[in-house]
Every structure is written in C-alpha cells, then in structure tokens.
C-alpha cells in the first residue's frame, strides 16, 4: 500500500513540476508578445530614425528560445530514463536502517 501511495505522490509531484514549467514558459511568451509590439510602436513614434526595438526583441527572444529548449526540448528523454533507472536501482537495493 505504501509503495502505491509513494508512486502516486511521485507522479503528482512530477506533474505539478511540469505544469509550473509550462506555466512559466507560456507566461514569458505571452509577456514577450505583448511588450515587443508596444516597444516597436514606441520606437517608431518617438525615434523612427534609430530602430532600437531590435535589441530587446533579440535579447528577450534568445531568452525565450533557451526557456523553450529547457521546457520542451533537448535532453528531456535522457533525464526521464535516468530518473527511472535510479528509482529502479533504489527499489531493488536492500534497505538498511
């Protein structure tokens, strides 16, 4: 009974962490999509001779790209396999008290 509860607890924690990651990424992306157009308009109205809005757009864009890779991308499957392997090793090893 205890192992079932423990597995459910671990699954819940994992799902909760994943939801937080997704929420953080989508919040960042939403902010970007709202702020950058505002900066474009502000730039074009106040100083159309110098297009400075590219700098925050590129910098924040690189940040969002890194956030997306961290949230969705590279290495996630390896990470999951390694976690499963370590959990299996722990469950097979004799318990010492």
Short description:
The protein is an all-alpha fold and 97 residues long.
The whole-number mean of residue pLDDT values reads 86
Rg, nearest Å: 22 Å
Low-confidence stretches: none
**Structure annotation, total helices:** 3
End-to-end gap: 20 Å
| Major sheet details | none
- Overall geometry comes to elongated
**Structural class by sheet pairing and helices:** mainly alpha
Bin the strand percentage.
under 5%
Q: How much helical structure, as a percent, in the residues? A: over 70%
Q: Tell how many strands the DSSP assignment holds.
A: 0
What is the helix/strand order? HHH
Description of the molecule:
- It contains 3 helices and no strands.
- α1 (2-46) packs antiparallel against α2 (54-72).
- The protein has helices at 2-46, 54-72, 76-92.
- The radius of gyration is 22 Å and the shape is elongated.
- It starts with a helix and ends in a 5-residue tail after the last helix.
- The chain is mainly alpha-helical and 97 residues long.
- The model has no long low-confidence stretch (mean pLDDT 86).
Task: Please describe the structure with a list of short key phrases separated by commas or semicolons.
single chain, 97 residues, mainly alpha, 3 helices
How would you summarize the topology of this molecule?
Layout: H1 2-46, H2 54-72, H3 76-92
Helix pairs in contact: 1-2
